[in-house]
Amino acid sequence: MDAHDDPSTPAPRPPGVDRQILALAVPALGALVAEPLFVLVDSAMVGHLGTDALAGLALASTVLVTVIGLCVFLAYATTAAVARRLGAGDRQGALQTGVDGMWLALGLGVLLAGLAWVTAPWVLAALGARGEVAVQAVTYLRWSVPGLPGMLLVLAATGALRGLQDTRTPLVVAASGAVANAALNATLIYGAGLGIAGSGLGTAIAQLGMGVWLVVVVVRGARGSGARLTPAAGGIWANARAGVPLLVRTATLRLAILLTVWTATGLGAAALAGHQVVNAVWGLTAFALDALAIAAQALVGHALGARDVARTRALLRRTLQWGVGAGAVLGVLVGALAPLYVRVFSPDPDVQRAAVVGLVVAAVALPMAGWVFVLDGVLIGAGDGPFLAWAGVATLVAYVPAALAVHAWAPPGAAGLAWLWVAFAVVFMAARAISTGLRARGTRWMVVGA
């Protein structure tokens, strides 16, 4: 091993690294916030249909986002694999990986949409939906699940484009999808009088349109490189196998979120509706910070594919600095402006009060969240999925007692929601920060080559 590959070699900042990070992170932000923006738009419009409708949306959107979240490996594993192949000079192989990932996404999307439609009443009842809240939740979920194949295709195609260091195309598609979603929802909810069903249908149509658009872009690139377009069992299986550890890791995150929603349900309808507002804003800021993680994935994967360990170390340090700084800025904005923007989501004073206290707690934790999300991106870009799977299990085990304590002893309403977000945004995120931080200090995750 020469000095170029020695992990102990000092890692000066590579020339132009900030420009490279921003060139990938800023456009990636648009693609990442597509789903949270859909939820925010849905929340703002549905909130004016009544507290029961907003509470139903809280439960149904949690199920929908959980399904999409479990499949985020379609983007993350594809980004890492495509970036490594590109770094090793194999553009055709990189695009072939992307095509195989899209076939896997389409099959999973159709299967999961069917399962979600059939099981909607039982799944939502398990989350605590009762009475009119349950009716609203089932309606939204069943009208929105036809968009699942489109959203999973968005994940896979976006992952391929990120690996190719193209985050601008997903930005254009995401921005167009967000505008279309808002227009469709307004038309279908109020103009057509469909209520919460119109919200779900509008989101589904927007997601399908985005998926078709991105697939066309990747297919065009694959044809130009000579990659095949037909499904290959070996390639699809390779994508699925690479995604299993990330699926486990994501499952632990979603279980933590589901546990949080279940706990919020026991705090009363106002607290649950307030939690929907906090969760929507948290999701938006989390994905905003994850834009830096996407830049880290692509750049670290490329550097390791090119066998450049010193550059990998430098990228780790600099992206972490960006993550913590961006988290601090977002924290100030989220916390200071909370009393103003919560009014957009609900006219109910109890819901507004609960949302504000939850948002203040979440805001305090955002700098730590920036650290966590960037480290996740670095390790995913390095292909360190097995560690992330085990770390996910460990952090979930650490969080469960805190959430159960809130369920058992926290008072209903705003105070209870504040304690719930202390458990999630502070205890759970601290466990993730410690586990990934210790891993990044070592060298076992830095495996070089394609």
Instruction: Please state the CA-atom Rg, rounded to the nearest Å.
Output: 21 Å
Number of domains: 1
Order of helices and strands: HHHHHHHHHHHHHHH
Shape: globular
Beta-strand content: under 5%
Specify the structural class. mainly alpha
What is the helical fraction, as a range of percent?
over 70%
Report the count of strand segments.
0
The helix tally amounts to 15
Mean pLDDT: 83
CA-to-CA gap between the ends? 17 Å
| Largest sheet composition | none
In the predicted model, the low-confidence regions spanning at least 5 consecutive residues are: 1-10
Keywords: Cell membrane, Membrane, Transmembrane, Transmembrane helix, Transport
Pfam families: MatE
Transmembrane segments: 21-41, 53-82, 103-123, 143-164, 171-190, 196-219, 255-274, 280-301, 322-342, 354-375, 387-410, 416-434
InterPro entries: DinF-like, MATE_fam, MdtK-like
Brief synopsis:
The chain has helices spanning 17-32, 34-46, 51-70, 73-87, 91-126, 131-144, 148-163, 168-191, 196-225, 233-265, 269-305, 309-341, 349-381, 385-409, 414-441. It is an all-alpha fold and 450 residues long. It has one domain (15-441).
Description:
This protein is mostly helical and 450 residues long. The protein has one domain (15-441). The protein has 15 helices and no strands. The chain has helices at 17-32, 34-46, 51-70, 73-87, 91-126, 131-144, 148-163, 168-191, 196-225, 233-265, 269-305, 309-341, 349-381, 385-409, 414-441. The longest helix has 37 residues, at 269-305. The radius of gyration is 21 Å and the shape is globular. The relative contact order is 0.14.
